[in-house]
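Long-time lurker. I teach an intro course on protein structure, and each term I like to show students one example going from raw sequence to a predicted 3D structure in token notation. This year I'd like something fresh instead of my usual example. Would anyone be willing to generate the tokens for the chain below so I can use it in lecture? Attribution to the forum is fine with me.
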Amino acid sequence: MKISTHRSTVYEGHSHYAMNIAFNPKDANTLASACLDRTVKMWSLGSPHLNFTMDAHDKGIDYVDFYPGPDRPYIVTTGDDKTIKVWDYLSESCVQTMEGHINNPSFAVFHPNLPIIISASEDGTVKFWNSNMYRLANTLSYALEDANEVAVGYDEGIVVIKLGRDEPTYSMDSSGKLIYARNQLALSGNIQSLSPDDPLPEGTCIPLSIKELGTTEIFGNALIRGPNGRFVTVVGDGQYIVYTALAWRNKCFGVGLSVAWGGDSNAYAVLENRVKLHVYKNFKERGGVGMKGCESWSIDAIFGGPVLGARGKGFVVFWDWETGEVVRRIDVEAKNIYWSGTGSFVVIASEDSFYVLHFSRDAYNAKVEQGVDITDEGVEEAFDIVAEIPDSVRTAKWVGDCFIYTTASNRINYFVGTESYTISPSDIPLYILGYVPAHNRVYLADKDMNIYAYSLSLSVVEYQTAVLWGDMDAAAEILPSIPKEQLNKVARFLEARDMKELALQISTDPDHRFDLALQLDDLDVATEITRCMPEAEAETKWKALGDRALAVWRFDLAKEAFDKAGDLSSLMLLSLAVGNRDGLRKVGDRAVPKAVDAWHTELRRWNKSKIAASIGHPSEHADLFEEGWHDVLFREVESR
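-- Reply from a regular --
Happy to contribute to a lecture. Here you go:
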């Protein structure tokens, strides 16, 4: 067998058909060949001499592929013995043999980013193997199932499969320190390094200086930071590793589907499997009684907070960290749980909506102190529902008692009190990193970890919260700290709460203040606002002011408003209603020229310019408009 590259070098050595060759992505001068003579041979570009040979399979070899990462000198091979093998080509030793196909595997390749080996076989199946644990993760047979994207070719056509997820793996603490994973590389940046004074348009992509922290031994699908920020847990591949956040040193590791931190960084829980839960204190497993009932419920994930939360099919449950007793079990189909930093509120997010609940530790403790028997349902009084919001939560963060979240429809919203408000829509899916109070900005990232910022004044949120909870004294104390450019937003919030008098005092927008003044029948304020406006903008406001003045029997103000608005029909009706002959005369003097002008315009529009020219105008032929006028007035007087 001969292999030729650009007809410059011929490689000889195989005794049967060479099925494929692969170049080493870590060393472009090295290539491997797979052959039906049951061997894999290593070659160097520019040299016809064989480096070494590996007897890889019991039957012919169909495919060879190099591991793309920098940390493992591995290749994967497939053979007609129906096996897939992973080899260390430096030691020329077999690392793992994977079996599962019932016919010859046609190929096996390492995914360039995900910890996956993808194989396809003549048995019609595509299999996905975990390249860390070498376990079978999934099998697809087409019957086209929906499985970053991989194209698989068949005799009948091509199937394109999407792998993994779009959501990035990241964690940011309250000080703006960001850590995220790209494949198995850990990277960090500091949002605080961005200048809060930069005049950035809303939604602008912001460059952030990034440095490399190290690598993760597992491919993480979640980064969970401890409450004090000292430790970061990487979860993935059915394992977890706790790293120190600054030096990125391995603190501890183990088997686990999900990890949750307690109220401090000394306690955490690990869900080993769906019915086995461990609690650790100071990185040592806590002895004694575990979490009540956990072995009888199938749990999908756990969540940290003042109490330990878990979700399963059709329910969520909360346990006391210390005693393991059930605090409350709630029947709801949940996908995530978010605790506020104060521990007073929790959001339970389902597929199409989310529920905001208030947690009362005192109510729970009171029942315990009374000696009440705590069942698997827990204490009903421990949680009270505050609101149900029909929004689908994609990602979320609590800032005090404000819940900021992104939605499936690409909106950035926040919830305070009992209501939800929109910060901004976005053109692409964004994922919340957190809020930096010194910047008054919410920071988000897209799937590639490009950073975006949107303004949100914390003082505005605190003011809204105080108003919604009815604490107007606290709201009055917060008001002076609100930036001037945010006052109109506050005023519209107050208007929506039917607090229009307060909104009128706060608003700085003339149009908004005018509308509020009319709604409150504060016509003196409305008049003052209108008099300060440019004439071109004031006309419609004078008309609205006149209508309102007429409705509340303020005829003098109505007359002034209609006069400045040029509303002759309303002036005529008003003059007739109050018997103002002088006013009627003045309306006539102003109306006739306008009527003639309109007549001229209409005639010219219909190409009747000669007729239009024959009709006199009061400004040019005043005498034509005086004949009989005095007689009419005399007859009107006589009739009275």
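Some talking points for your students: DSSP finds 13 helices and 44 strands in the chain. Residues 142-147 have pLDDT under 50 and may be disordered.
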